[in-house]
Amino acid sequence: MSGMQNLKDMASNVEEDNASLPTALMMPFGRLSVESEEVRKLNINWQSYVKGQMINQEDYAMIAEYDLMGVDERGNIIETKGFQLAKTCLSLLARLSVDQTIRYILVLIDDMITEEKSRVSIFHEFGKRADFNVWGALLKFLNRQDQFIVHQTALIVVKLASWGKVTLPDNDLNYFLTWIKNSLGNYGSDYQHSVAQCLQLLLRHNSYRQAFFKLDGIQRGNAVIRVLADILRESGKEKVTRIIIATLRNLLEKPEERKNDAALSMVQCKLLPEDVEIVYEKLNERVQDLSTFDEYAAERENAQRLNENNFELLKTLTRLMDISTDPIILAVAAHDTGEYVRHYPRGKHVLENLGCKVMVMRMMTHNDASVRKEALLAVQKLMVHNWEYLGKQLKVS
């Protein structure tokens, strides 16, 4: 199956109705995020490792202490002992081999840097001070049999390469980009969307874009235009429409030497001005439905108010989701939960502590389609960390 067909099929999967829960759950976070939730529940017997002299006492003390802490306590120890924590995590990855333990350590690292992007500098600084090859220590896991380990590692590598000032060295970059290119060709993989997310993060950086292009990671013909045109006609999603229009615009404006070729391809696939005009009208209609800035500001204020009185309203929402059987109440509760964390990202930890997140995830298998839909959307909002980027994209459109 060709790469262009893969692209088209992946895009069409996004359009599947949320009622098809297994497929919908894969978008846009996929199996990796679902498995990560299970990994976080693991209880690793660190003492057995130190007794077996597989890890030293210093690393044991660090990981055992960190493992028992709550979110706020972990934040404090990262600030005060971040260098030691990075050393311990990387040391454990080098010394231990049990898949379950490796999974757990990788999720710890990913949670640490995802919670606060600037923390990637802790690992880079450790590598510099200790003369330790952080990239090599991680990239070796791309050859493991356990696919969760492989793809969780890839996501960590991408974040370290994208969120800090230290970039991937050329040799490691070529190796990693080749892995991404080959993995994207593995159509049908449960982790394909995670690979696509890795590529998306890398391609925001010009140096990585150029390297990927040199590896023939991007087809140099205009076959993609026909695929995008087909998706544009079939899609009813505003975000999909916005991205495709922006891509087509770039093809007409950016590469001076290929403007005519791109324009000809758009005409040949019947992507005429009338199509764009229809899209423009639809977008204008959508704009009328969008909240004004004042309404948005009010939503943010309301989200903060949910924290009042020791989270009394959030506790009420959680209780309703636990005891109510009314689909309307459950759908509204799930929606409000998602909006709360969207306007107050730090609130996701509050929801986890209250047990609200578990309630929402449970509703993704509810008999009522509207409840399933709102629960799925809420879970997606709980998992998304980069709302600032999404907001900028909406503003640009």
Automatic annotation (TrEMBL):
<dbReference type="InterPro" id="IPR004908">
    <property type="entry name" value="ATPase_V1-cplx_hsu"/>
</dbReference>
<dbReference type="Pfam" id="PF03224">
    <property type="entry name" value="V-ATPase_H_N"/>
</dbReference>
<feature type="domain" description="ATPase V1 complex subunit H C-terminal">
    <location>
        <begin position="300"/>
        <end position="387"/>
    </location>
</feature>
<keyword id="KW-0406">Ion transport</keyword>
<dbReference type="InterPro" id="IPR011989">
    <property type="entry name" value="ARM-like"/>
</dbReference>
<comment type="similarity">
    <text>Belongs to the V-ATPase H subunit family.</text>
</comment>
<dbReference type="InterPro" id="IPR038497">
    <property type="entry name" value="ATPase_V1-cplx_hsu_C_sf"/>
</dbReference>
<keyword id="KW-0813">Transport</keyword>
<dbReference type="Pfam" id="PF11698">
    <property type="entry name" value="V-ATPase_H_C"/>
</dbReference>
<dbReference type="InterPro" id="IPR016024">
    <property type="entry name" value="ARM-type_fold"/>
</dbReference>
<protein>
    <submittedName>
        <fullName>V-type proton ATPase subunit H</fullName>
    </submittedName>
</protein>
<dbReference type="GO" id="GO:0005765">
    <property type="term" value="C:lysosomal membrane"/>
</dbReference>
<dbReference type="InterPro" id="IPR011987">
    <property type="entry name" value="ATPase_V1-cplx_hsu_C"/>
</dbReference>
<keyword id="KW-0375">Hydrogen ion transport</keyword>
<dbReference type="GO" id="GO:0046961">
    <property type="term" value="F:proton-transporting ATPase activity, rotational mechanism"/>
</dbReference>
<dbReference type="GO" id="GO:0000221">
    <property type="term" value="C:vacuolar proton-transporting V-type ATPase, V1 domain"/>
</dbReference>
